[in-house]
Amino acid sequence: MVGEWVQQGGILRPGKGIGLQLRWPRKLCGSRLQLAGFAFMGLFSAVLLTVPSATGWILLILIVVAVVLGLVYERRVFCRHLCPIGGFIGWYAQLAPLEVRVRDRAVCRTCSDKPCYEGCTWGLFPSALTQNLDCGLCMACLRICPYDNMALRVRPFGADLAVQAAPRQLDRAWFGLFLLACSPIYTAVMLGPWGWLTEAAYAVGSPAWLRYAAAFLGTSLGIVPGLFWLAVWVGWCFDGRSGTLKRRFTRLSYALSPLGLTAWIAFTLTFAFSKLAYVWPVMSDPLGVGWDLLGTADWAWQPYLVDATPVLQVLVLLGGMLWTVLETRRVVSLRASLPVIIYGTAFTAIMLWLLL
Ligand code: SF4
Ligand code: SF4
User: Fold this and answer.
1) CA-CA distance, 194 to 182, in Å (whole number)?
2) Statement to judge: residues 316 and 239 lie in one domain
3) From the CA of 85, how far away is ligand 1's center (Å)?
4) What are 320-333's pLDDT values in tens digits?
5) Are residues 146 and 270 in the same domain?
6) CA within 20 to 30 Å of 84's CA: 60, 172, 239, 282, which one?
7) How far is the CA of 152 from the centre of ligand 1 (A)?
């Protein structure tokens, strides 16, 4: 937001912003920088998520980087190409029940200026959108289109995965598998019973942390994607090696996204309900200076839905598994999908074991 104000002159001097407005280098497009950012933050996640000053510093650094990039490059290049959280949200937004899409492509063919492209803050061509991956849902195109030809629509969950014409990219697939791997790692480190593992993740710079960092990167960038490649390869052999292995790997990685999303939801459920009771006192006294704005400052902490949480986690994970099976079957034959289904089942079993 701050970067965009500077770039565009904010609301006080619209159209009189400052900055170089350069184009983002083509070779830096894609998910590689987002993956690198997520991996970097993952190495320090135990500290970043639990030490308030560390959380504050990382947020400040993200804001400063976004503003500086807003001064050098055009539009929201930080959001689209660099922000690890943006990459996370984009990958799972494929499964969202909302989309911004064109109403009638025939109208666009008669629109000579195409102002929606000029106005898209993410640098997309809105009238050609086929998937949610890069759309930030900023709604600028709805406001700008002179023909009222863009719309925010409700749709079935995961509709992007069914769009045959949507591009499927290997770097995105790799990022999706990396995110999939991170959910059990975070679960083991944050919620698991292994004190030595949690301590190693906290002790940044120590030999134990270096071993943890090597294991984190090796698992998330090597073992999990590597085993998936193996499962896809076995299925490819079952299928008489039809088509290219790379294309099949990429498409099936997209089909695995429901499993990743539900794994993250199940992980989050563990602390969402148990920490929710902290919100009420904080709302009454947000600065910790003794206020009682809403009369909730003295509300005692208590965990909510203690008995229901494991049941919800099982349902969510099994739902994700079933969804992934259906998506996998959409892409390949039954026998080719079997190794991928075994891979997904093993992943689900590990998540259930870690969480329950
Ligand atoms: S401005 Fe509207 S009509 Fe023109 S190309 Fe964009 S979406 Fe289509
Ligand atoms: S909602 Fe925003 S990011 Fe998405 S296509 Fe429209 S202008 Fe671009």
Assistant:
1) 17
2) yes
3) 29
4) 999 999 999 999 99
5) no
6) 282
7) 14
